[in-house]
Amino acid sequence: MSPSPDPAARHQEGARHLAPARVLDVDPLLEDPKTRIVVCCGAGGVGKTTTAAALGLRAAERGRKVVVLTIDPARRLAQSMGIDSLDNTPRRVKGVDDSAGGELHAMMLDMKRTFDEIVEAHADPDRAAAILGNPFYQSLSAGFAGTQEYMAMEKLGQLRARDDWDLIVVDTPPSRSALDFLDAPKRLGSFLDGKLIRVLLAPAKVGGRAGMKFLNVGMSMMTGVLGKVLGGQFLKDVQTFVAAMDSMFGGFRTRADATYKLLQAPGTAFLVVAVPERDALREAAYFVERLAAEDMPLAGLVLNRVHGSGAERLSAERALAAAENLEDPRIVDQDDGKAGVRNSPDTQDGSDSPEPTAQPSSESAPENPQTPESADPVDDTPERSVDRLTAGLLRLHAERMHLLAREQRTRDRFTARHPEVAVTEVAALPGDVHDLAGLRDIGTRLATGRPELPEPGA
């Protein structure tokens, strides 16, 4: 039987190695002209927007004509692209290296404006004006559950239909669940085609007095209940909205289905974005399984904010032991002379024991004798200050090594469950990305899995 490896060697080998079963190679994906859509998805707060922007920049500087569709990005991200603000219109990003012939455009989804564009495109001017001014429509377009996800799909379909860009990078909405991006269009379509809408639409379809008679005879009880729950004026607004939108309802479902098929088609690639934390990777695992169930093409996992260390040879245990030794040298390090006096068997009962030091008389005792607590005053010499500082740094290093080990265990659980998923890592950065250079650096890390610390001599 071969000897088990040394624990320190095992730690050195695994501390930074969150090595996946398969490595995601980002550049061939971005450079392939057959790749037309890249969708960055995942739980909230894992860096989807920054990842999408960095991928778009890297693709543009490799010759692709790219538009990045972001969903409510932080102001710093717009500034990192050199744009004061993003809106529903793609804007070209300046400062991109276009020597390869590429371009980068960026836009932010305006949920309400996208809904307005649908109404204006599919209704005559009078009906469009009636819809846009309807209070229920204004509430629906501004914040109805699932509207943002649906409009993201609508905007994606619009961008793809225009064929002005050869790559669209989508940052999915910061939903409670990453699955909402796939589910919301169906839910909104079901609502618009649902029984409640048909009930509210029935009087308008029958028309005039006959409609009112139909309503009074067959549905007065239902509408009375709805009026009490929703409010009479609100119910009237809904009915007016439904009557005006009648001819458009089928279009919502048709476009949602078309975009859904676009996401399943060759040329689309999903990147699941996560951080090496249990909840985020659990969400990523659910999304991986859902994409497989829906026959949607998964390119791989982007693992953001992976921590590393340039001193992996020093384990957490050894660092803590060294810190304790520096903080209280009496625990381990004693001068040879003192150790010989304290530990020699001759000093226990031997006749050669040194004579005890004579105690001073009361007359010669100092006025304020030291108490046991003050007998060993704090050593503020430069050497002890350096020791305390070093001990603090060693404890910080031990915390970092524990963090690395925890990330590795979390990551290993994911890769054991989904060994087929290719992974690329992005190291944790000390600050926010605030310019194109920062996005370019993120793109490099995405493509190469560069360690957190630069290589010696780099």
Automatic annotation (TrEMBL):
Signal peptide per UniProt: none
CDD domains found in the cross-reference section: ArsA
Domain spans labelled ArsA/GET3 Anion-transporting ATPase-like: 35-306
Protein name: ABC transporter ATPase
GO MF annotation: an example: ATP hydrolysis activity
Region of interest (Disordered), residue spans: 325-383
Polar residues: compositionally biased ranges: 344-373
Biased composition regions of type Basic and acidic residues, renumbered to the chain: 327-339
PANTHER family from the UniProt entry: ANION TRANSPORTER ATPASE-RELATED, ARSENICAL PUMP-DRIVING ATPASE ARSENITE-TRANSLOCATING ATPASE
Organism domain of life: Bacteria
Entries under Gene3D superfamilies matching the protein: P-loop containing nucleotide triphosphate hydrolases
